[in-house]
Each structure stands twice: as C-alpha cells, then as structure tokens.
C-alpha cells in the first residue's frame, strides 16, 4: 500500500441542538454501518453522546453538535463534539441508585473498548472506539 493511502473512511455530520436530532444521529450511524456487527453498539453510543451534548452543554437549543464516524478494518471510532459552556468535562460517574442522571457515559465506557475525552470548557469531544477483532465482552485491559 502506498504510504499516503488509507483504508479508513470518515464521515461527518453537524446537527442543530434539538432533541429530535438524536434520532437523526442514530439513523445516520445505522445507515453508514449497515451490515456491520458493530452497528447496534455504535447506534446506542451515538445516541447517548448526542443526547449528552444537547442536555449538558451549550450545544442544546440554539447550538449544534458534530459527529464524526471513522471506519477502518480494525476499528470503528465515533466522536461527538459539543460547544462546551460547562465548568466540568464529561466523565464516567458512579451515581447512587436514586440519581436521575450520570449513568450514560459509564454505559458507553462498558460498551466501547476505549473512550477518550478531549477539550476544554469551550468544547469537548468524546470518542468511543469499537475494535472489530475483539471478542464479545473481551474489552482490553
């Protein structure tokens, strides 16, 4: 293979910060990954990350959020970038059993093989990676 050629394919989508855009993000992900054994997990992850962007950052309402989906022979990487505006970044929490919020990113971290958070108060990108050659339940250490 030529050193400047890649087998990865990348898609991007920017959505207004309205709740109904979460279903659009799910459909978009499902359409791109149609036939992939990772499609259901990817759709669930995109749904959670998109909802978090709308509910917990300046992306909601008049803002927007951006999705990126990269597919290679070894990994499917899903990224959601928000518009920030909060004092704290996304993090996996261990809420008590009566808590109404705080479980979503934890769920994503269980489904994905790796979750990475980048950014600052002006905007965060959460990337979840699904490895194509991993066994079910065989998340790397």
UniProtKB/TrEMBL annotation:
It comes from the Bacteria. The keyword Chloroplast does not apply. Keywords: ATP-binding, Kinase, Nucleotide-binding, Serine/threonine-protein kinase, Transferase. Residues 19-128 form the Histidine kinase/HSP90-like ATPase domain. CDD domains: HATPase_RsbW-like. InterPro entries: Anti-sigma-factor_SerPK, HATPase_C_sf, HATPase_dom. GO terms for molecular function: ATP binding. The lineage of its organism: Bacteria, Bacillati, Actinomycetota, Actinomycetes, Kitasatosporales. This is ATP-binding protein. The keyword ATP-binding applies. It comes from Streptomyces tibetensis.
């Amino acid at each position: 293979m030529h050193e400047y050629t890649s087998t990865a394919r990348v898609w991007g989508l920017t959505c207004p910060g309205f709740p109904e855009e979460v279903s659009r993000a799910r459909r978009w992900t499902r359409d791109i990954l149609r036939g992939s054994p990772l499609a259901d997990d990817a759709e669930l992850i995109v749904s959670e990350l998109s909802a978090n962007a709308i509910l917990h950052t300046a992306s909601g309402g008049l803002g927007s959020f951006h999705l990126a989906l990269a597919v290679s022979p070894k990994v499917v990487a899903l990224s959601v970038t928000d518009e920030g505006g909060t004092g704290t970044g996304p993090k996996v929490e261990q809420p008590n059993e009566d808590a109404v919020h705080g479980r979503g990113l934890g769920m994503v971290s269980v489904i994905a093989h790796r979750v990475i958070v980048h950014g600052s108060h002006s905007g965060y990108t959460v990337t979840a990676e699904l490895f194509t050659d991993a066994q079910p339940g065989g998340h790397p250490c």
